[in-house]
UniProtKB/TrEMBL annotation:
Residues 137-203 form the WYL domain. Gene3D superfamilies: Winged helix-like DNA-binding domain superfamily/Winged helix DNA-binding domain. PANTHER family: PROTEIN PAFC (PTHR34580:SF1), PTHR34580. Pfam families: HTH_11 (PF08279), WYL (PF13280). It comes from the Bacteria. This is Transcriptional regulator. Residues 22-61 form the Helix-turn-helix type domain.
Length: 237
């Protein structure tokens, strides 16, 4: 973790437990740096206007102004377990899962002691095998979708034949245990779905992608999704 990443992480840590404080010693152990480094980082945050404050005394430490923290989310026990299960079960190849560990830590910090213990016990029972999608590929696809930018990919079909494509991303799809990048394939001049674990390489282009609805990319797929949403609505009703 470089210094910039650590500064963001310090703010996230203090925000997650606001208005409770963290000691320099605790933060030093948490981020694997010296106490002096933590002190310098906290001072730098203060100088840049981040509302971190120091409180003296036996139970003191560094904290962040609660007015800058998100309001607490009142989750029921089952809701907290559902969120924890989703986070713990997210594979490395699941899009936008990289922040799952810090999200789990914040969830545990927001719960009372008994609920947090239950969440920790549950997550110890969930194991996910290593993913086959390269982290660099996943990160590039995430950026392409989030920023709506054209992405170049080298893709292998079911038979292992590789081809190069430029794709205008439309979204991400989970189906039958796999994740897909759904978008407009300029090579095929049609909407296509690309399994993330078959993307061998990916590079983000500077060119913005044209916005297309899912129906414009794949009408059959859009119909199946609408059908699934209708069934879910009926089951809740």
């Amino acid at each position: 973790m470089n210094r910039t990443e650590r500064l963001y992480a310090l703010v996230d840590e203090l925000r997650a437990i606001a208005p409770r404080p963290r000691t320099v010693g605790w933060l030093s152990a948490r981020f694997g740096v010296s106490r002096r480094t933590v002190q310098r980082d906290l001072q730098a945050l203060t100088e840049t206007g981040v509302p971190v404050r120091a409180e003296a005394g036996r139970h003191g430490g560094w904290f962040i102004d609660r007015r800058t923290a998100l309001p607490p989310i009142n989750l029921t026990g089952p809701e907290a377990l559902a969120v924890a299960t989703a986070l713990a079960g997210a594979e490395d190849a699941t899009p936008f899962s990289a922040a799952g560990r810090s999200a789990m830590r914040k969830l545990a910090a927001a719960l009372d002691e008994s609920a947090a213990d239950e969440v920790r016990a549950l997550t110890e029972l969930i194991h996910v095998l290593p993913a086959r999608t390269a982290p660099s590929v996943l990160a590039t696809v995430e950026q392409a979708v989030a920023q709506r930018r054209v992405v170049w990919i080298r893709y292998a079909d079911a038979a292992g034949r590789e081809s190069e494509r430029e794709v205008e991303p439309g979204g991400l799809l989970a189906a039958e245990g796999s994740w897909y990048l759904v978008g407009w394939c300029r090579h095929r001049r049609a909407g296509r779905g690309f399994r993330l674990d078959r993307i061998r390489a990916a590079e983000l282009r500077d060119e913005p992608a044209r916005e297309r609805t899912l129906a414009a990319l794949d009408r059959d797929l859009a119909g199946r999704i609408r059908h699934t949403e209708t069934l879910r609505s009926l089951s809740r009703g």
